[in-house]
Structure formats: structure tokens, C-alpha cells
């Protein structure tokens, strides 16, 4: 009898494994219940946070109701509060960041998962991409102020306003912080999430898929575009939705770059605001009903993020069925 509970016969390669003992069954059952407790604990913690925020936001909820979501005024002097401009800014900056980061991130993942580059070069590039996630948010904000905004003001922003100023999205000149600079920096901040998860999804595919596609006469890029990416689409979509949730909750860099203007301006070159930057810029000096209004805004952001994660799960499940 071996130490692993298997019986080996002399002169034979046949191994008969013994059924699990009562101790093994107890350990397995205990492990299952322990993981259930941890999962329920996370759900309970999430619910506790939501209830705490909601209880603190209750005065503003009673004062403004659902109209808080559709009002644009934010005036602590007259106790008039609404988060429609902040919701608009949160969604616009997040989706522009995704529009830039998704093709770059998925393309980078393809390059780093296939044999386009030598292994040593790929290892260095993977490390550099993951290093982007370790840079503090405030450093991105400072870099955006001193590099991205002046560069955009002198090049792309001026060009867009000069040639496409008749179009509402570029109707105002870029003079400083605005939605476009914030979105560009945000796209760089979420790039490591999309790249890392997409690369893991691609590298985890069975090698038989590549070999079978190439053996049937497909070219390298046909194999990547028509076989590998569709096979890994659930992981890629999951990474994209996680990046969207990260973008919606980003605080410090957006606060430094977006301009913190509590108005809705269709132009991407004009200042704007997000819910996270509103909380960061005003919570420290808030008092009275304004504190409750800020927590009401935090609850709105909480719900938006929850909706994004639910949609991500539904999309991933639907893609898996396809």
C-alpha cells in the first residue's frame, strides 16, 4: 500500500485507488463550506457597504427623490443638488477610454501571446504592460497636466477645433483640463487590465486549435481573427467589462484632468466632471445636506458599477453559449 492510498501489484503497472476515507470526506465537505462562507461573507460585506451608504444618503433621497439623477444644478449655498452632469461625464469618459483601450489592449495581447517576437522581448513587454497598473493614479494625473494637456492643446485639440468646430463634439477650443485629456489618460490606466486578461484568455486556449486551423490551410492572421479570438471572446469581454468598471470608479487622475465643471457640455474639448471626482473634490469641505447629497451620488455610482458587472456576466454567459 502506497502513502497515497493506492494499491500497487508487484510486476504490474496497474494501480487501484482506494475510496476516500471518512477523514477525506470530512475535509472535502469542510473545504466546500469554508468557500461558501467566504463567498457569503463577501456578499454580506458588499450589502453592508451599500446599506451604510444608503442610510447616510437617506436625507438627500427624501429631499430630492429620483429627481436628483435628472437635475443639473449643484449649489451647496441654496441646497440644490443633481448629478446628471456627473453621470454624463462618468459614462462619456469611460466609453471613450474603452474605445481607445480595447483595440490597443487586444492587439497587444495578440502580439504577446503569439510568436511574433522572441521570448525574451515578450517577457520584457509583458512586465512593462503590467507595470502600468502599478503606477499611482496621482502620477498619471501629474503626467496628464504637464504632458498630455499641453500636447493636445498644441496639436490634436487645435486641429479638431479648427477643422471640425462646426461639429458639437469639437465646438469649443481646448484651453486646459477637459473630457478628452481625461479620457486619453484613463485609457492608458485601464490598458493593463484588458491586455493581461485578454492575453491569459488567448494563451489558455488548447494548442490544437492553432494547429488544426493552420493544418486546414488558414493563414496566421486568419487563425488569429477567425479562430483564436472567437474562442477566447468570453475572457476578452470579461476583461473589457472589468476595465469599464475600473474606469467608472477612477478618482484622482480624473479629478486633476477633467476640469470639475458641473455642467453638461457636448464638446469633448470642454471641462466636465464625474461622480468620483465630485466626491474627491467636495467631500472634505462638505457639511449638512451636501454630505448626504454626495453619499447619494456615491450610491448612484455604486448602482451604475453594479449594473456594469451584471451586464458583463450576462454578456460572458451569452457568448459562452454561442
Automatic annotation (TrEMBL):
Organism taxonomic ancestry: Bacteria, Bacillati, Cyanobacteriota, Cyanophyceae, Oscillatoriophycideae
Family to which the UniProt record says this protein belongs: Belongs to the binding-protein-dependent transport system permease family. CysTW subfamily.
Keywords: Cell membrane, Membrane, Phosphate transport, Transmembrane, Transmembrane helix, Transport
Pfam families: BPD_transp_1
The name this protein goes by in its record: Phosphate transport system permease protein
Biological role: Part of the binding-protein-dependent transport system for phosphate; probably responsible for the translocation of the substrate across the membrane.
Organism expressing this protein natively: Floridaenema evergladense BLCC-F167
Spans through the membrane: 30-50, 86-112, 124-152, 179-202, 223-244, 293-316
Domain ABC transmembrane type-1 stretches: 87-312
Amino acid at each position: 500500500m502506497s502513502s497515497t492510498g493506492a494499491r500497487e501489484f508487484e510486476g504490474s503497472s496497474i494501480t487501484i485507488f482506494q475510496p476516500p476515507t471518512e477523514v477525506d470526506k470530512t475535509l472535502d465537505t469542510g473545504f466546500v463550506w469554508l468557500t461558501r462562507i467566504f463567498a457569503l461573507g463577501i456578499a454580506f460585506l458588499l450589502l453592508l457597504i451599500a446599506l451604510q451608504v444608503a442610510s447616510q444618503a437617506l436625507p438627500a433621497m427624501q429631499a430630492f427623490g429620483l429627481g436628483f439623477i435628472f437635475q443639473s444644478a449643484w449649489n451647496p449655498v441654496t441646497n440644490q443638488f443633481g448629478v446628471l452632469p456627473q453621470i454624463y461625464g462618468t459614462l462619456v469618459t469611460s466609453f471613450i477610454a474603452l474605445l481607445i483601450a480595447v483595440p490597443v489592449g487586444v492587439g497587444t495581447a495578440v502580439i504577446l501571446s503569439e510568436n511574433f517576437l522572441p521570448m525574451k522581448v515578450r517577457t520584457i513587454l509583458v512586465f512593462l504592460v503590467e507595470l502600468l497598473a502599478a503606477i499611482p493614479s496621482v502620477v498619471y494625473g501629474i503626467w496628464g497636466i504637464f504632458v498630455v494637456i499641453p500636447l493636445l492643446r498644441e496639436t490634436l485639440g487645435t486641429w479638431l477645433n479648427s477643422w471640425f468646430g462646426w461639429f458639437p463634439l469639437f465646438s469649443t477650443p481646448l484651453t486646459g483640463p477637459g473630457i478628452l485629456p481625461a479620457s486619453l489618460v484613463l485609457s492608458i490606466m485601464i490598458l493593463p487590465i484588458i491586455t493581461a486578461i485578454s492575453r491569459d484568455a488567448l494563451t489558455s486556449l488548447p494548442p490544437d486549435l492553432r494547429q488544426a486551423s493552420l493544418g486546414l490551410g488558414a493563414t496566421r492572421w486568419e487563425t488569429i481573427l477567425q479562430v483564436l479570438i472567437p474562442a477566447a471572446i468570453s475572457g476578452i469581454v470579461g476583461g473589457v467589462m472589468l476595465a469599464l468598471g475600473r474606469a467608472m470608479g477612477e478618482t484622482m487622475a480624473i479629478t486633476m484632468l477633467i476640469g470639475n465643471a458641473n455642467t453638461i457640455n457636448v464638446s469633448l474639448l470642454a471641462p466636465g466632471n464625474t461622480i468620483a471626482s465630485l466626491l474627491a473634490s467636495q467631500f472634505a469641505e462638505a457639511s449638512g445636506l451636501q454630505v448626504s447629497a454626495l453619499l447619494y451620488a456615491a450610491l448612484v455610482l455604486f448602482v451604475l458599477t453594479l449594473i456594469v458587472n451584471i451586464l458583463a456576466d450576462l454578456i460572458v454567459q451569452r457568448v459562452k453559449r454561442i
